[in-house]
Amino acid sequence: MTTLVDLFRASARRVPDGVALRGGGEEVTYAELDARSDRVARVLAGSGVGPGELVGAVVGRCVESVVTVLGILKSGAAYMPLDPAYPAERLRYVVADAGVRVSVGPRAREVPGVVLSVDGPGEGRPSAPSAGDPAYVIYTSGSTGRPKGCVVTHANVVALLEAALPLFGFGPRERWTLFHSLSFDFSVWEMWGAFVTGGRFVELLVEEGVTVLNQVPSVFRYTATAYREAGCPGLAVRWLVFGGEEVDLPVVREFLGEVGGVRPSVVNMYGITETTVHVTYKELDDAALADRAGVASSVGAVAGRGSPARGGGFRRRDVGRRGRGVVRVSGAGGVDPGAVRRAGLRRALPDRGSGA
């Protein structure tokens, strides 16, 4: 079965001279990114890192961070993003809770634990991951108790990409921005949506012509305000993809009214970390955008993955009503294996009404 490493290498073979990343005054092609992340994988393998290992990735949103994540995956290990901006107590907790032995990355010395330098040429022989191996672990916020690490496999992410990417038709001409922290799983969609389709990452929305813009609706309010304050310059955005929350329609309508040229398609998606980023998809056409309710839900399934939210007892839940809900996921491909080092902790149950 296919892994994320397989998908990246396929793009590197298909568009080796295509630009994969541009940032911090640096431009990196797919072939160069492939070679640089191979070196990181060799260094990790030479230090005994391999399949089944969880490596702390102390990263931001820069070229070297992407190199680090790819290198960890190529070593056969999984990455666990560690944000130096988080409180030291939380970082100490998640490192210990997940059993992280080493951390790497451009800011690794800012977090507790053993730091491994990946600056050398590397002499190890990496072991390729399998589809069922973990790709990453992302810790929850801990708002309902102690943070828990959600384990997501290569197969989980590949299932997302195979189901969702055909809905958009992204290609090598797309320019993406890694807007979200790697500690937030929206970044998984951004990173692999770009790499699987041969797109490129850039930093600047207007100046570098971003064509795929992913946003959490509450954050988009600030993006829209900044755009307005900049004088509403021309945009190249073709897809405006929301995730994680209901969309505030008045904000979107005002933004679209200020955008010159071809109006972008607007999509709202939803999912949780345990179901691998997105399980629902709803394109907001003119009728949906004109809805006077003021918000747009994400009801509408990504093929073979999701369904409308349901309330307690798996009853269909009215959109907009508050309460405890259940996201139904069709098939096993999107549901993660569980929480790191908590084999018995799971909240995925069969839907007796559908057989899912």
Automatic annotation (TrEMBL):
One GO CC annotation: cytosol
Boundaries of every AMP-dependent synthetase/ligase domain copy: 8-297
PROSITE patterns linked: AMP_BINDING (PS00455)
An example molecular function term from Gene Ontology annotations: phosphopantetheine binding
One Pfam family per UniProt: AMP-binding
InterPro entries to which the protein is assigned, alphabetical: AMP-binding_CS, AMP-dep_synth/lig_dom, ANL_N_sf
GO BP of this protein: amino acid activation for nonribosomal peptide biosynthetic process; secondary metabolite biosynthetic process
PANTHER family reported in the protein's UniProt record: FATTY ACID SYNTHASE, NONRIBOSOMAL PEPTIDE SYNTHETASE
Protein name: AMP-dependent synthetase/ligase domain-containing protein
Organism: Streptomyces acidiscabies
